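User: Structure please.
Assistant: Input sequence and predicted structure:
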Amino acid sequence: MRKAGALLVALAAGMAAAGGPATVQPPADAVAVRVDTGLALARASDEARYLGRWVALRGDAAGRPHAIVDKRGARLYVFDADGRLAGHSTVLLGAAPGDRSAPGVGQRAQAGHVPMLHRLRDDGARGDRLRRAATPSPDDNRASLGCVVVPEAFFDAVVRPLLGTRPGVVYVLPDDAPPQARWPDAALSARAE
């Protein structure tokens, strides 16, 4: 039984690498593969947990630190290069929900003109933004111009050391679709966290 689960993981990875179908149906007798992303203890949303398992099982971050932005939950989960959860925090997000960006913002971000992920800056509205970031509800966390804004202490302790000094990957869960639409893998439904 254990071999069937391991084979399923290897088969799914091999098919995706060979350009074959990205999804594989698990055999009826497959044993769930345990993936400890730390997201269960962090009380992450089902969507963030799905994406965390997807990244871990596929090795998609390729040994680099990475983060998952849960826009619906207004949360950020940061992982070290070994895939261990290094920390999580509430965040402020763009004022307008959705999964489309303004024309040209991608090119400006790549050139360093639009920071995608930064700490909460002192800009006059800081008191209100700090209050909004600290509330338990994500409903009032839509307060930025499109950036992911992180509390200063979390940025300095977790984000900067892991994502600010070397290449990393940031995965952004969509507002308008389930993560399975962007990161499909039918076999994940048979795996435990």
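Residues 117 and 148 are 5 Å apart (CA to CA).
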